[in-house]
Every structure is written in C-alpha cells, then in structure tokens.
Queue: 2 jobs
Job 1
Amino acid sequence: MAKKRVEEYYLMHKDIPVCLMELSSDGRLGNYKRNLSALEHFPIGAQMNDVKFHDWWKDRAIPKTRNGAKSALQRLGYESTNSALIDNLALSLSDCYWIQPRGEGLTWADVNLFTNDFVDTFGELTINQDQVVDLRNKTQFNCAASQGELQKKWCIDASGKRYMIKGNYGESYQQSINELFATELHKKQDFSNYTAYQEIMITVQGGIEGLGCLSYDFCSENKEIISAWELLQSIKIRQNESYYYPLKRVCLSLGVKEEEFDHFMDYEIMTDYLLSNTDRHMNNISIIRDPDTLEILGMAPIYDSGNSMFYNIPYEQLDKVHLDEINTHSFIQKEIKLLSYVKDRNIVDINKAEMDFSLYKKDLLERHIRIPKLQELYERKRIKLKAFQNGKDIWKER
C-alpha cells in the first residue's frame, strides 16, 4: 500500500493561527503544535486533550453515512470525506475555522464562504445523483463541511445571502414538510429564536422534481455556532449522566444567562414533544459566539426538526404508537421524561398550538390516509401537554 503524503497546515480562526498540524492526503491528523499566544481561539471542544482534538477534526468532515455520499466521493475522485475536507480547506458556513497550507499565505478574506462565491459540489451530487457535470470548475472552493446525514447543499441567492436546501429520505417528502410544519408552530407561538424553513422544488435522483425545504444561514463572519456536543467535550461527565445539566453548566460558565438557557430549553423541549421530534441530539442544539471577541451571544435558533411527526413509521403501524414509550436521541432516551427538565410549564401556549394539517397534502406518499392519523396523534400529544401544564407529572403515569 502506498504511503500517504503528509503536509503541514495551520488551523486558522479567521486570520489567527491556532496550531500547526500535520495532515495526510486522506485527511488524517498527525502531530500538531498549539500556538500558545492564541489558546483562547483553539476550538472549545478540542482543548481538553489530544483525543478530543482528533475527534473535533474528524467530526468536521461530512458524515460518511450521508445519503449519496459514497457515490459523490467516487464521482469527485476522493478517497473519503476527510480528503474532501482538505480540498475544501475545512471551510464551513457554521464557523470561522479553516486550514491554511503552510507557506501559501492565504487569508480569511481570500477563502471564507460567507463572502466568496462557491458551489457546493458535494451537496449537489448527493441531492441529484444523476448530475454529470463536475461543478468544481465553477468555484475556487467546494463546501464540504456540514453535519447531518440528510441530503443537503448550500447555495447563494441573488442578493448574496447563503441558504441551505434539504431533501428527504426515500420517496416521501414528509421530512421537508415537517420543517414547514414546525415553522408554522413557532410563528403561532410568537417565538422568535427559530430557523424559518420555506418550501422549494428540487430535482432529485432520476431527474424527478420533488419537494424540499430551504433555510437561510443564521451564521456569518460575525456569528459562529458551537454545538452542544462540542461544548460537552470540554468537561468530564459522569457515566450515565444526562447531558442536560452538564450542558447547562458549560453554557453558564461561558456567559449564557441562566434565565435565557431555561427559557430556550423549556420551549424547545415542549415544542419538540408536540412535534414528536426524535432527533434533538447534541449536534442539533448550539450556542452562538462572536468569533472576534469570543463573546457568547446566546442560544442558536432552533433548527433541524425534520425527523418528527412519525416520519419513519409506516401508515399501518401508526395505530400501534404508544405515546409514552417514544424513544428519542436527546438528553435522555424516553421522550416523555424530557418534560421533567421543564421549569416554566406555560411557556408554550397550548391554545395557539392548534395546527392546519393541509400542509401534508403536499406529500405524494399515502397523503390521504396518513394525514388523519398524524392529526389524531398530534391532538393526543396536545391533550397530554395540557395535562402537564395543569400540574401533572405525566412521565410518572407510565
């Protein structure tokens, strides 16, 4: 087997070098040396030890499990998503970290995706796997650092704003519709700190036009996000301890106000319960930071609510759903027990949570028979949440 070529790169935070690192041609991190004069700019989740830094670097790449990733890598001639990450200089539209090849003298202004034009080649090929044009000749950099397994790509609108398009799993469009549904719920609640999703038609595999959704980037050169998962890598957590309280401790230590954390988490937990969102894992919760001053600006808007409303349960199984037994990827496994963290039970106005289910008519799969079942399950959730707001600890009644 041929030996992998190793080159040196600076890990940069905008124009501040935070360490000098060795990277092999397949994206593996070797030795590195921190810049002692810029330790505060070193990634929070990588500060504890070498293992944490290696994990932070690996997590920066597109997940190998993303739908269509293997095919896209082959088409673009990459060994792995890590080698694509290096070709992309590890740039992201979520933060201001990137890698500078040693000796090349590139600057943040030269490369950043917030102000420079780009085409998300990898995203284009995962959404439309029949695409035969190599889009790399249209851009200096490929956008290769975005998390999540769902098909997605970054784009630029006519005014220069960055937005993300997301697709769906399988033939159903329900995940995209769920994002639109969640957007409507937040609007009705007059809650402002959420990501608004819009409907968009996309061309998918086979040249078929399908329904997707888009959302504008809430990050910029002046705002970057740090995920809850990264924050949790900065502290030691007891075995089998829920992530909720460790996350709260880290957020408060960094400057998030306790009342803001409590208000945000109470609202998110309760609306996720209504939506039966089973995917509020620690990469789907973040805080926002000023990359220049390193000041924490607060909780990032709610995002990624597509894996909700029983999207992955076949119609014939919906009657068998036990609402008190739903498992979720979050602070703890049982969805209903998440309500035990809520301090202000009245943050969600249950009377403003009545929803119009006609949105789901846009889904071509089982739409006529599925909608009444989804509405029935949602209404049962609403009744349970009302009982919770009236003082019942409903997780104790299982």
Note: Residues 127-142 have pLDDT under 50 and may be disordered.
Job 2
Amino acid sequence: MGIVIKKELDPTFETVFLLFNSHIPDWKGELIQNLQTFGVNGELFLQKHFGIVETYQKTFQKYKQSHPKESFFFENIQSEQTLLIIFLAAEHRTLLNHGEPLDLLKLRSFLASALLDLDVPDYADMPQLPDEKSIIEFLKQLDIPSEEKWFILELLMQPDYWISQLLEIVALNIPAYEKAVAAVKTPLRKLLSRFSPRENTVLLKLFFTTPHDTTVYPSLSAPLLEAGFYTRGYQGLLIEDLTKQKGSSDVEKETLLRQLKALSDKSKLDILCALKTSSKYNLELSEALNLSPSTMSHHMNVLLTCGLVTVEKMDGRVYYCLEKEAVSTLLTQLNSLLL
C-alpha cells in the first residue's frame, strides 16, 4: 500500500503531546539529558533550535483547559503508556466529528493488538477479550512492571468510556492548540516547507510492510520523535537539525554503541542467531526462544532502530531478517577503530 507524506501538523496528535508536555515539570531538562546520552550538547541544541518549540508549548499552556479525567491520562505514566494513549487518539480521531458508536469488544481487541505490537488488519485475527477473566489472562503475558498494569487494566475494562474521555479532552483543547500554532506561524511555515521524511528510516521501512495506506505527519510538539502506528506515523521537525549537528564520525560511533549494547543482551543476541539461517515472523521467534510476544516486539524494535535487522512482507506476514551488511559494517568499524 502507499505512503502519503503530509506537510501539515496533525491537530489531534499535537494536542495530545502538548498535553503530555504540560504535565512534565521540567520537560526541557529531560530533553537535554536525553540529548546528552546520544553525544549531543543538549543545552546548546535547545538554545539554537528550540525557541519555536518553547513558544508553542507556552502558548498552549496559557490557553489550555482542564478536564476532570486529565490526570488519568497525563500524570505519573511511563513512556510505553504515553505512546499507547497517543495511539488511541490518533487512530480514533473520526469519533471526534462523527459521534460514531464505540464497540467495546473491538476496542479491546484493538488495544490488545497495539500492546502486543501486532499489525493485524482483520478484527477476527486480533486478540479476543470478552470478559474480565480473559483480560486478566492477557495481562499476565504482558512483559511490563506490575505497578503499570493497573492503567492497562482500566483501559481494557472500559475502553469505550476512556476513549470517549480522551477525545473529549482533545476536543476541549483544540482551540489552545490553534492559538499555539498561530503564535509560531512564520517559523513553522519554514519548517513545514522543508519537511521530507528521511529515506530508509525504521519508520518508513515498517510502513512499507503494512497492508493499508499510511500517512506520515510532521510534529512540532514532539520535534525529535519518530513513531508509527497502524495508519499514521510522525517525524519531528527538528530531527534534520539534530542530524546536521553531529559529524559523520559521531553518527557512526553512536550507531556502533547502540549495536554493541544490543549485542550485549543475551535475548537480542539469540534473536540475531536465530535469524542467521532464515527470516522469521514475530510469533515464530517468540515460540522458538520462549519469549512473550510483547517482549519479542520490544527486542525487535531495538534491533530495528540500531539497524541489525530489517523487515519484509511475505505471504501476508511481516518477517524479520538479519541485516548481514550491517553486521559486516559493524565488524569493519570495530577493526578500524581499535586495531
């Protein structure tokens, strides 16, 4: 299927991420720390490029409207839960305008598929969770900390209620988002005009394997993020500036460090060894290595990000393949660097 590249912001996604940022006391400090981890002078990068983002966030905060259920979605949650909430809003945006009825069982299956990182287009192929017992059994297989499962349990028990509340919060704050966009209109227009998703990224590779059309949007509320869901993906508007700031040798070293870190984990190394003989799909690998599907998805996302595996579609399934050229390059770089 095709990939559509948009040169405009997605109001639903932007509003949800602006809401998240508004609940982080020191979002700039956290970002600086993350940049430092990847060998970038975070303070200098923010001073040079983040004026537009700061104005955008401050304007939204000024006009933001509170909602009674806001704390459930945006306070004291982990990064994986953050992406799940964004996924909920991004993929159910039509409910904002059409008032469509919410199907409880389908929403549960949709959420369960997202939690397992399954790309299944047909409802019949999705996990079926008709009652409390099946939900609890499903939660047992999720490889997440016990203290985080209460949030997932709440969502799965009443997905129709919670998604209605989430979309209500978004609708309430769309005017604040529009004010924020107006405040950065001129510099935003320049960023949007140059937006073109980088070729050969994990995001676009994954989209080429999906059985449906997908749309990639730029993001200002998450300017350094790359994230893909079922039918929508997002790439930050400042990723290009981040790439330019690093020298080619810095980029190579960063990639090498990520790859070596991945290889130091036994499960990830076992996955690469299993892929040496032939390509395999997620559940096939899970059974072979005795890992849960969610754990396998986590490991594969890391391996995809650092370029040691790639994906291809065969017989209606997404298969993972060992990126042998990347492994050869890794060995060459180590030899050049250390010998």
Note: The mean pLDDT is 80.
